Amino acid sequence: MEVKTLKRKWARISIALWYLGLGLSIVVSGLFGDWLEEDFGLPASGIMGFGFGLMLLGIVLWHGMSRCPCCGERGRGKSWVYRKTYCSRCGHVLPFDDGPVHEEEAPLDRRARFRLKRGWARLVLALMIAGLACMAAGVLVFNLLMPRPRNEEELWNAIETIWAIRDAGIYAVLAGIAFLAAAGVLTRRLKCPCCGQGLAAPWQGRDQVRWCQSCGAALAFEDELEYE
Ligand SMILES: [Zn+2]
Ligand SMILES: [Zn+2]
User: Fold this and answer.
1) Judgement on whether residues 23 and 76 belong to the same structural domain of the protein
2) Contact, 98 vs 110, CB < 8 A?
3) Are 154 and 45 contained in the same domain?
4) Within a domain: residue 101?
5) pLDDT tens for residues 63-121?
6) How many Å lie between the centroid of ligand 2 and the Cα of residue 215?
7) Distance from the CA of 88 to the center of ligand 1, in angstroms?
8) Ligand 2 centre from 14 Cα, in Å?
């Protein structure tokens, strides 16, 4: 029986779109925004939006084009060249069109099993939520509360409010970035103890096992019942 493979070209297009979008939104509109706006009449915010759109398109594309033939999980194993990658949901090796037809894999019940501390997962999850909430709040404060003076007099009357709102927005976004960075640092606590590459998902449920994407070990959290 022929196995449906994942196509390398879609992984590459998706990665290319993501980096192109990142470059456009951060480098181009960040560094050359003023110059583009003045000399070419291109709005920096438009370019940034377009860049974010491309990044999103890259993610959505890979999600649509990559389907694990064993369990139907999507969006796994994206890489530029072939790497042996296990599906994190069902634990089988993902077949790619440029990889070996049959990769060897140990049977699921004979893989190494690790139990990670639940406390770290909770902390990472809380930091991620707090970070996203702060960033969203900062952006909303900027967009919704900022007064829009129509003439100079109104501007001078509102200048204190404008400064206060600007500061509040910036601090909220910075706090969000700090929370997300802390979450990023702490994810190392969720790494596969065997290879240090794959990650357990902090939102993994009580009796849920995820398989390390690079070595195929079973990752679960401590409060899960022992079932060996
Ligand atoms: Zn799978
Ligand atoms: Zn591993």
Assistant:
1) yes
2) no
3) no
4) no
5) 999 999 999 999 998 999 999 999 999 999 999 998 887 778 889 989 999 999 999 99
6) 4
7) 7
8) 25
